[in-house]
Structures are given as structure tokens and as C-alpha cells.
Amino acid sequence: MSLPPLSPEQLVKPRYFELRMSLIFATLFVSLGTHLPYFPLWLQAQGFHAEQIAIILAAPMFLRVVTTPLLTALADRAKDRADVYIALVAATMVLSAGYFLKPTYAMVLAVSLALTVVWTPHSPIADSLALSGVRRFGSNYTAMRKWGSISYLCANAAGGFILYWTSVQAVPVIIFVSLAAALVAGLLAPRLGRPRRASPLSATDIQHSAPGLLNPYFLYFTLGVGIITASHAFLYGFVSIYWKSIGISGSVIGLLWAWGVVAEVCMFLFFNRIFASVSVVKVMLIAGIGSIVRWIAFPLIWPLGLGVIGFFGVQTLHSVSVAMVLIGLQKMIGETVSEERTGAAQGIAYFFNGFFMAAVTLASGPLYERYGVDGFLAMIPIAIIGLALIGLAARSAPQHPVRR
């Protein structure tokens, strides 16, 4: 598939391209690193019960699997993706102020639904800009993207200390301020024009290339990845609430979340040294087993008297249950999907991950309401289903890597 030619302007590298993209990634992930661990705590502080929290968390997930590919396709067709990015960040900042209004259930749900439409595309559009720099100018993607991981880690830890010294009511303020910082950084986004290849989640790319991906190996594998990932829904939705209920302070909760990210980054750094010769199916089986061990361990830590140290230990499994899933998926796509279909493959995997995560998040509210931390045990059969699908994928795996 031939790519459209670059215009003379697109051949000129913007000044300080890597620095500007690093700043965008750094500011982009602060709000995300605050929202995931602490937003459920804020919802609980407003008096919402577990089932309402689950709906507020899950409903946007269902919506964004539809809207995000449409908006990334819009960005692909726009005169410049940076303008779309700035507009979306500005809209996100304005809408996030809705959390300052009287927090009725209907209001918070409506704001969350509106927010997810304009918030979720930030990352894939930023990735698209960075990858254009990689293709056109030889920029180092990892060197730029690492600042997103660093800022996410810092947001996890710093957010906990801020809440410890203030209160959980500071969560909307932190999100609003961090989005304002992202908007300032977005104004510095390099102008690169239209991409030569569709963004990873582009609806156009999925529509054109998806039929060629409908083979048993790809479908079983991506379904398995989506379901193993979805077994983390109970963790993301309710572990901060659980930790607070047993008297763990906000600062320690922040450190526990941050430790999981540290473990994930370590796996990214050392994966090739440890698992370079391991097949992608075995990588995913290890990740699924790590998930099961994690969900067995969580309800036992506090009753067995292992305390906070035990939770740090189980959070270390984030390196297996999350990082190895992410790496394994990309490894599978790289080995079996031709280059012109990689964007569609990413989009289909995103849809499966998003849909199953939303479904399990929705179920997690009643589980926590009735069983508390023992709701983690319900994540075990979900992870087992994911493992079974990976096993079916192994039986239909291609004998040779894809021809480039």
C-alpha cells in the first residue's frame, strides 16, 4: 500500500520537536494518574454507593470504545492534528469543571460521559504526532514517551500526599489544574499536517483492514487479552476504596499505586533480557497466571497480617499481569500482522479491551457492595476464561511469521 507523499513543509523538522512532545506526554498523564486511583475515592466521599460508582466508572468505558476511533479519524483528516488535540484538551478542561457543581448522581454521570468523549483521544493523537516524528525525522519515541510514564508515576505518589494533607475533595481540583497544564503544553504542539498513515485507533483504518484480520488466531488472542485485562476492573474501581476502609492513608495508597507502575516499567526495561526466547503465547499464559495469583492473594494479605508490605508485594505482580499483557499483544501483532494492518489490529484490540473492561467494571460494584475485598475472587474465573482463549489461539497459531 503506497503512502501519500510528504509536502515540502512536512519535510522540515519543527524546532525542539522531541522536547515539545516530551512536555505534551508529561502533562498529558498527570490527570490520568490522578483520575484512576483517586476518582473512586472522591465518588465515595460524595455518598455514592458501590453500584453507583461502578456505573459512573463503566458507562464512559462503553461510550469511548465507539467515540474514540471516530475522533482519531477526524484528527487524521484535519489540516493539522495538533489543532484537534488542543481543542480536545480545552474541552476536557472546561467539562472537568462540572465536578465542581453540586455532585448529584445524575450530574456526575453526565459530566463523566461527556468527559470521556473528549478526554480519551488525547493519548492516541499524541502518539500519532510522536510517531510521525519517528517516521519523518528519526526521532526516538521511547525517549519522548517515557516522560508520560514518569509523570503518571509522580501523579500516583504526589496525589496521595496531597490528599493526605488536604482531603479527597481536592481530586477535581487536581484534575482541572493538570488539564490546564496540558492545555498550555498543547499550545506548543509541533505542527506536522496530516499523517501519511492512519492513527492506531482510526475508524477508517479499522474499516478498511479489519476483514483481513478475522482469523482464529488473531481473534482468540485479542479476546483473551481483553478478558485478562478486564479481570483488573475490580482493582481499578475499588482497591483504593478498600485500602481506605482498612485505615491505609492516602499517601500510602498513592505509593502503592506508584509501586505498581514502577514494577510495570521495570518489566518493560528487562523483558527482552528475560523473555526474548519465550513464545508470545507462553508470555501471555504467564501473564494470565500472574493475574490469577494476584486475585487470590489480595483478599488474604490483611487477614494474614501481612499488612502494607504484603500489598506492596502483590502490587509487584503488576509487572506480570499488566506489563506482560501489553508487551505480549504488541509482540503478537508484530509477528503476525502485516504493517499496513497494524493500525486496525490495534483498534480491534482496543475495542475488546474497552468493552470487556466496561462490562466487568459494571459488575464490580455489586460485587464490592456484597463481598468487599472477596470480590477479587470473582476475577479469577474471568482470568481463567482469558487463559482458555489464549490456549485456543495457540492451537491455531501461524507456523511462520508474517511476510513484510
Which properties best describe this structure?
single chain, 404 residues, mainly alpha, Growth Hormone, Chain: A, 2 domains, 16 helices, MFS_trans_sf, MFS transporter, cell inner membrane
Number of discrete helical segments: 16
The domain tally reads: 2
Strand residues, percent: under 5%
- What is the chain-wise order of helices and strands? HHHHHHHHHHHHHHHH
Give Rg in angstroms. 21 Å
General form: globular
What is the H level of CATH, i.e. the homologous superfamily of the largest domain?
Answer: MFS general substrate transporter like domains
Question: Strand count, sense and closure of the main sheet?
Answer: none
The CATH level-2 architecture of the largest domain is identified as Up-down Bundle
- Give the fraction of residues assigned to helices: over 70%
Q: Care to count the β-strands?
A: 0
> Given the helix and strand composition, which structural class is it?
mainly alpha
The CATH topology assignment of the largest domain is Growth Hormone, Chain: A
Q: pLDDT below 50 for ≥5 consecutive residues: which ranges?
A: none
> What integer is the average pLDDT?
88
Question: How far apart are the first and last residues' alpha carbons, in Å?
Answer: 12 Å
